[in-house]
Each structure stands twice: as C-alpha cells, then as structure tokens.
C-alpha cells in the first residue's frame, strides 16, 4: 500500500429535516389543533482515529464525504428521523486544517479520539410548536437548517518516540528491523527506503516505544534534493533523534563530513528539529577498518559520547535500547514535572 501523508477532502453534514404542517383529524375531535412534528437533525461528519490505519491512502479515491439528511417531521407530532452521522477513520497523528482559512482545526493524537468536524443542520420546528393563544392554527413550519461544507487538508505527522536520521545506506532500516518486528526493505544502495516505517521496540524496562525510520537525507535535502525533505516532518514530533553514522564510510580526511551534512539539513529544515535531544550512534562497527575509522571520528569530534553498534551483527543494540529507555524516562519525568 502506498504511503500517502496528505489528502484534501470536503466534508458536508446533513441538512436538518423540515418541520411539518399538519392538523389533528379524528372522528369526534373536531379542530384537533396543529400536530406537525419537528424535522430530524442532519447527520454530523466525525473524524475518528484508528490504529488500523497508518496512512491517508484510503482517502485518495473520493473527494466529498457527506452524511445523511434528517427526515421531515410528520403529523401526530412525530419528529423526523435523525440523519446518520458519517465517520471517517484516520491514522494517529493526523492534523486537520481548514483549507479556506488555513487554520488548524484539530490534531488527532489519541487512539479512539472522535472529533465532530461539521455538525448536522438542526431540524425545523413543526407547526405544533407555533400554536399560541393568538394563533391556534399556525399554517407554517420551519424548514430544516442546511448542513455545512468544509474543505479540509489532512496532514499526517507520524507519532513516534525516536526518529532515525542519517545518510542513505547508513543502516537505519537494518537498525529498525533489528530492534523491532518491523521488516523494512534493506539493501546495499542509497534510497532503499522510500517511505517512513514505524517499529515498536519491546523492552522489559518500560512500556514499548516507537522508532520511525525515514528515507535517508542528503546534502540539499531541505531544498528538495533526494527524498528526505518530504519525510522530515515525520520525525518532527519524535522526542529523540538517533543520528546514525556509517562508520565504514567515514572519510579519514574529513571524518565529520556526513555528520555535519545531516545536522545542517536538519537545521535548515527546522531549528527545533535540530535542537531535539540527539543520540550519536556509529554503525557498522563490524567492518574491518571500523576501529580506525571510529578513532578518526572521535578525535575530530573531540569527545566520546556516542554509541558504537553493528545493526547487522547485533552488537551494542541492548545498550542502545537501554540508553534510549533512560532518555525517554528522563523526558517523561521532565514533562510530568513541567506539567505539575
Ligand atoms: N557490515 C555492516 N553492514 C550493515 C550494517 N547495517 C547495515 N548494513 C548494510 O548497509 C546497507 C544499507 O542498509 P539499510 O538498512 O538499507 O540502510 P538505510 O540507512 O535504511 O538506507 P536508505 O533506506 O537508503 O536510507 C545494507 O546492505 C545493510 O546490509 C552493519 O552494522 N554492518
Ligand atoms: Mg532504509
């Protein structure tokens, strides 16, 4: 299935049903008075989150989503039927914008969240409601209120705890597949990953956390080179970035080149993204010249606060998981203290 993270749709709520003009007609009850019932309410259009959808692909085929109109009132004071609401399923992390006013209407982040995006029109009042001492036989009723139309732009920003960034081929997908049960495509060429993948990491230390693997970034990504920019927004909401550096590709003459390229692209895209807590991880420590390359890197970097792993060989992964757990625990604590 295609990974679609933007969709434009229109939603229209149902019209309210018309109120009814009717008079009670029964044998032996002459001039029984007005008994026209009210119209039923039109159906709402609701947006609801579901964990079974991961993209906005299912919204590509239809543009207008309309709920049912309310039924008209009828004699004997019968109220019309309410129009059925229409529910649209959306993945977690969907932002809902009003296209015309360019305002954010809702950010759907919780599982099972329900948002009434347009309310159905109210039903019109039947003539029984207009009976008064001065008008005992009202011959009019209200029409139903019309439903509303809204043009929406839906934008998906994945919700993950950890975002993986790095050059193409750094081993991001290998790492996600080693840490979680996700099985993204892995291959020895750049741009293997074309769309983001999420993996759930199970640990005994804390509740599971989610890692997002996005396509590799290259120089000029913020200007649209490569694929990365389209997907950077999917790590915008992560709490921690893991910056994966391919140690096998470290250039002895300029060991920090790749590292700086990625950080520059992050900053150009969004300073907030660049300022996120970042964990530096050297990958492919199993290759022959990895130790030397790592030494070049550390010397140029000036400190040794990084992890060294082999995503393919499995070494250092337990430690990486532990460090991420600690970091997420710390952020949880900080957030709860700020909220208190
Ligand atoms: N020797 C070695 N090779 C690795 C390691 N991790 C990944 N690779 C290899 O590096 C290549 C690229 O791995 P991917 O996981 O596809 O890299 P990626 O960062 O997801 O690449 P893109 O999706 O193109 O951005 C594959 O051939 C992997 O087998 C490692 O720890 N050691
Ligand atoms: Mg990949």
Structural commentary:
This protein is α/β, with parallel strands linked by helices and 340 residues long. It has two domains: 1-156, Spo0b-associated Gtp-binding Protein, Chain: A (Distorted Sandwich); 162-339, Rossmann fold, CATH 3.40.50.300. It has helices spanning 172-179, 228-232, 257-269, 271-274, 290-301, 317-339, and strands spanning 6-12, 45-49, 64-66, 86-90, 94-98, 103-108, 114-118, 149-156, 162-166, 197-201, 209-213, 240-246, 278-283, 307-308. The strands form three sheets. It has a six-stranded mixed β-sheet. A five-stranded mixed β-sheet has the order 3-1-8-5-6, with no helix packed on it. A three-stranded mixed β-sheet has the order 4-2-7, with no helix packed on it. Strand 5 and strand 6 (103-108) form a beta hairpin. The longest helix has 23 residues, at 317-339. The radius of gyration is 29 Å and the shape is elongated. The model has no long low-confidence stretch (mean pLDDT 92). Bound molecules: guanosine-5'-triphosphate and magnesium ion. Guanosine-5'-triphosphate (GTP) binds at residues 166, 168-174, 186-188, 190-193, 215-216, 283-284, 286-287, 310-313.
Q: Could you give a short description of this structure?
A:
The chain is of the alpha/beta class. The chain has helices spanning 172-179, 228-232, 257-269, 271-274, 290-301, 317-339; strands at 6-12, 45-49, 64-66, 86-90, 94-98, 103-108, 114-118, 149-156, 162-166, 197-201, 209-213, 240-246, 278-283, 307-308.
């Amino acid at each position: 299935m295609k990974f679609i993270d933007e969709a434009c749709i229109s939603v229209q709520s149902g019209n309210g049903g018309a109120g009814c003009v009717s008079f009670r007609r029964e044998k032996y009850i002459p001039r029984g008075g007005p008994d026209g019932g009210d119209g039923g309410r039109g159906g709402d259009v609701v947006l609801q989150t579901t964990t079974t959808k991961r993209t906005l692909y299912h919204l590509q085929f239809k543009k207008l989503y309309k709920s049912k109109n309310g039924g008209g009132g009828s004699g004997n004071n019968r109220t019309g039927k309410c129009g059925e609401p229409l529910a649209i399923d959306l993945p977690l992390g969907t932002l809902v914008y009003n296209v015309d006013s360019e305002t954010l209407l809702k950010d759907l982040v919780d599982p099972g969240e329900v948002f009434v995006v347009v309310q159905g029109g109210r039903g019109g009042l039947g003539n029984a409601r207009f009976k008064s001492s001065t008008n005992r036989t009202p011959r009019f009723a209200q029409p139903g209120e019309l439903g509303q139309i809204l043009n929406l732009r839906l934008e998906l920003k994945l919700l993950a705890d950890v975002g993986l960034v790095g050059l193409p081929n750094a081993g991001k997908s290998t790492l996600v597949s080693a840490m979680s049960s996700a099985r993204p495509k892995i291959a020895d060429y750049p741009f293997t990953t074309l769309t983001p993948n999420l993996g759930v990491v199970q640990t005994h230390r804390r509740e599971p956390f989610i890692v997002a693997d996005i396509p590799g970034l290259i120089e000029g990504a913020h200007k649209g080179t490569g694929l990365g920019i389209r997907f950077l927004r999917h790590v915008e909401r992560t709490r921690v970035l893991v910056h994966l550096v391919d140690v096998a590709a470290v250039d002895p003459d300029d060991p920090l080149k790749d590292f700086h390229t990625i950080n520059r692209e992050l900053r150009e895209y969004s300073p907030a993204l660049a300022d996120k807590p970042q964990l530096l991880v050297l990958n492919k420590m199993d290759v022959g010249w990895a130790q030397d390359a790592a030494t070049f890197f550390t010397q140029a970097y000036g400190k040794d606060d990084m992890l060294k792993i082999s995503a393919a060989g499995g070494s250092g992964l337990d430690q990486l998981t532990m460090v991420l757990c600690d970091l997420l625990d710390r952020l949880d604590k900080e957030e709860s203290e700020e909220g208190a």
